[in-house]
């Protein structure tokens, strides 16, 4: 290979690389927060049918899907845009508003895409540590934003720790920051939240044009492999995100699957309820064994302080879990996998 003379931006050279949850032949993957079961047959059938027209470009602005999302959330279609997962929408939203050097405040530890997407979009990340229970430090985030921020990111429920922000806390943040600061609320896991204080930030958009809510079909809808998510916000923001997005990024099959999944509300609700019931069962059992488990409103739970030896014990039983410097995150799997995990956790602490 000849020597590369094209300079790579220093900010890009320094980027942390996204580490996907591990996969291994025969092992059960509890490391990427995916749904344990495939989507319903109506969804996969709609995707199969869409493939028959794969010689055609997809609908650029996904009119049918955006219409259905708008109806679902009680907003106008021009307040909705879709993208290849909320990871892509995050990059597009940051790219649409960040001038080089603009500060982007975000909670940490949180979604590992944040410290990648921020410098990639010419922003400067300002991480605000979580509190000792893995929750957002709301006053800390507000204070950091008060020192000047183009964007403030909230992740609720928070990946990888699990707690969610109450609606009143989000309202407090939005009321405190300058209206020129984009408040980006990542609600990837909100469908799994059962705490009645937790609710979507979408109703805040009407009064606060700087609020942008990001959703994905990767988690509750079980379409992680299809790559599709959406953002809801002020039409001016949505138009800007659309302008910087790769055209025709979201495939016809992904659009069809997402639309069918929205129409199969009962099926999605049932799948989510199953995961939530398993979450409650597993977390209660772990606590009874003596484990410390962070509060979780998502389809995973976090074991603060757990590390390499626990990850190795899981691997010995064919379970892949996700280590972080602060602890280990485990996705809720099917009942059999969860039972196996409980067996490892019981023996481990004994
Ligand atoms: C999984 C996840 C997403 C969704 O990512 P996609 O790109 O839509 O698959 C967004 N935010 C958080 C916090 C996540 O964990």
TrEMBL record:
Pathway: Amino-acid biosynthesis; L-histidine biosynthesis; L-histidine from 5-phospho-alpha-D-ribose 1-diphosphate: step 7/9. The modification N6-(pyridoxal phosphate)lysine is found at residue 219. It is an enzyme of class 2 (transferase). Residues 28-342 form the Aminotransferase class I/classII large domain. The keyword DNA repair does not apply. GO terms for molecular function: histidinol-phosphate transaminase activity; pyridoxal phosphate binding. It catalyses: L-histidinol phosphate + 2-oxoglutarate = 3-(imidazol-4-yl)-2-oxopropyl phosphate + L-glutamate. Its cofactor is pyridoxal 5'-phosphate. One of its GO terms (biological process) is L-histidine biosynthetic process. This is Histidinol-phosphate aminotransferase. The gene is hisC.
């Amino acid at each position: 290979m000849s020597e590369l003379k094209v300079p790579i931006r220093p900010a890009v050279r320094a980027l942390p690389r996204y580490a996907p949850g591990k996969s291994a032949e025969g092992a059960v993957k509890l490391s990427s927060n995916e749904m344990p079961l495939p989507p319903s047959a109506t969804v996969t059938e709609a995707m199969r049918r869409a493939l028959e027209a794969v010689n055609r470009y997809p609908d650029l602005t996904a009119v049918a899907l955006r219409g259905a999302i708008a109806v679902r959330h009680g907003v106008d279609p021009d307040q909705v845009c879709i993208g290849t997962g909320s990871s892509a929408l995050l990059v597009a939203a940051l790219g649409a508003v960040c001038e080089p050097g603009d500060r982007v405040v975000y909670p940490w530890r949180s979604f590992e895409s944040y410290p990648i997407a921020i410098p990639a979009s010419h922003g400067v990340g300002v991480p605000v540590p979580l509190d000792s229970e893995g929750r957002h430090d709301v006053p800390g985030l507000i204070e950091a934003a008060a020192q000047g921020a183009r964007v403030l990111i909230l992740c609720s429920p928070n990946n990888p720790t699990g707690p969610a922000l109450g609606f009143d806390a989000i309202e407090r943040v939005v009321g405190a920051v300058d209206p020129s600061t984009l408040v980006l609320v990542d609600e990837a896991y909100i469908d799994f939240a059962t705490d009645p204080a937790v609710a979507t930030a979408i109703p805040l958009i009407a009064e606060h044009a700087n609020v942008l809510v990001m959703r994905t079909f990767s988690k509750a809808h079980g379409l992680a492999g299809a790559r599709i998510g959406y953002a809801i916000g002020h039409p001016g923001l949505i138009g800007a995100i659309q302008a910087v997005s790769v055209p025709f990024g979201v495939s016809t099959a992904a659009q069809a699957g997402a639309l069918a999944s929205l129409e199969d509300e009962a099926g999605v609700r049932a799948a989510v309820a199953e995961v939530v019931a398993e979450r409650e069962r597993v977390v209660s059992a772990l606590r009874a064994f003596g484990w410390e488990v962070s509060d979780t409103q998502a389809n995973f739970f976090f074991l603060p302080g757990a590390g390499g030896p626990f990850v190795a014990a899981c691997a010995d039983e064919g379970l892949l879990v996700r280590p972080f410097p602060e602890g280990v995150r485990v996705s809720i799997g099917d009942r059999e996998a969860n039972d196996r995990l409980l067996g490892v956790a019981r023996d481990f602490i004994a």
